[in-house]
Task: inverse folding
């Protein structure tokens, strides 16, 4: 390939992306749709969710969204996520229109990400690329090659295993929902967490169930559950939760969550499933997931596909998913690059 083919168009213009700029936001939605058609398997983009993501960031995270134009045409987009207190900025989106790939637009976007990271006082950039599994479909190696070309390297974070469940082929509920073990009771809720569980949900999620049972409430960011559901509602998403109560103590021993976007009735995301360490060994994880799936299908009968992801070293949860019929699809590999200091 001639080196000139990698030179970006001379007229690249970087523009901040805002949900209040209808014209630019509409062009961005079109770009996301075009690139999604050639990208990893996923639910079709939902415009309500995407526009909502420009207004509602994840808890304790700042988002910095940009698009790039060439000749007045939108040819790429960048989203930088800036978690509170972290030394790094995360590249959540870096996409280039298929018609102008291998012309340096991606490199220009990455250079812009480095500048933004420095401006925000971050010294590193992180990101994720999709790689093939031996048992899965072939994934485009271009993203990994791009990360390598811009000087990023695999990080020490375990890769994620991305799994899909096709309810049209597999019925995890064929044998029904397991019996609830003695001493426990199931509770359910929708998108909004009931007040009596909000603190406990925050503690379970932030500690992944490993926090000591007697940890002081003041040590927990109790607003996490509320912040997360504010983002979810702002993006037009619905959620279904099932929790398990330890009856003797009244403590929420674990919970699971499935959510979905407004525009994709057949697709749902299996999110967090966590059981406190003091209550493991009773198969509560499987109980929670199956009971919640039954709840989801009562409220969302059109759901056919569920996706989920877990760190590859989370062998218990991956095995649980496989027992339900989830199939491995691809790997999510994390990369890191040096952003340096602001000039």
Result:
């Amino acid at each position: 390939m001639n080196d000139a083919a990698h030179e970006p168009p001379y007229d690249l213009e970087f523009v901040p992306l805002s949900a209040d700029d209808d014209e630019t936001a509409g062009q961005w939605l079109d770009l996301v749709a075009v690139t999604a058609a050639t990208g990893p398997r996923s639910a079709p983009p939902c415009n309500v969710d995407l526009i909502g993501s420009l207004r509602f960031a994840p808890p304790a995270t700042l988002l910095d969204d940009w698009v790039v134009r060439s000749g007045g045409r939108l040819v790429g987009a960048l989203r930088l996520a800036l978690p509170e207190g972290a030394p790094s900025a995360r590249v959540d989106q870096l996409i280039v229109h298929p018609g102008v790939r291998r012309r340096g637009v991606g490199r220009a976007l990455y250079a812009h990400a480095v500048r933004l990271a420095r401006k925000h006082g971050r010294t590193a950039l992180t990101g994720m690329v999709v790689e093939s599994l031996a048992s899965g479909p072939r994934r485009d190696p271009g993203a990994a090659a791009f990360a390598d070309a811009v000087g990023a390297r695999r990080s020490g974070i375990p890769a994620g295993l991305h799994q899909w469940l096709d309810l049209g082929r597999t019925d995890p509920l064929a044998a029904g929902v397991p019996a609830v073990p003695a001493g426990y009771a199931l509770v359910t809720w929708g998108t909004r967490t009931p007040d009596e569980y909000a603190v406990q949900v925050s503690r379970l999620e932030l500690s992944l169930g490993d926090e000591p049972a007697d940890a002081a409430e003041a040590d927990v960011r109790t607003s996490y559950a509320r912040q997360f559901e504010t983002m979810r509602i702002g993006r037009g998403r619905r959620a279904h939760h099932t929790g398990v109560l330890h009856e003797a103590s009244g403590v929420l021993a674990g919970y699971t969550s499935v959510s979905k976007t407004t525009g994709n009735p057949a697709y749902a995301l299996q999110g967090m499933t966590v059981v406190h360490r003091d209550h493991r060994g009773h198969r509560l994880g499987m109980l929670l997931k199956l009971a919640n799936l039954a709840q989801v299908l009562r409220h969302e009968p059109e759901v056919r596909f569920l996706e989920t992801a877990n760190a590859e070293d989370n062998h218990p949860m991956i095995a649980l998913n496989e027992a339900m019929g989830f199939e491995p699809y691809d790997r999510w590999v994390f990369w890191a690059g040096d952003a340096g200091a602001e000039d």
Remarks:
- The longest helix spans residues 284-299.
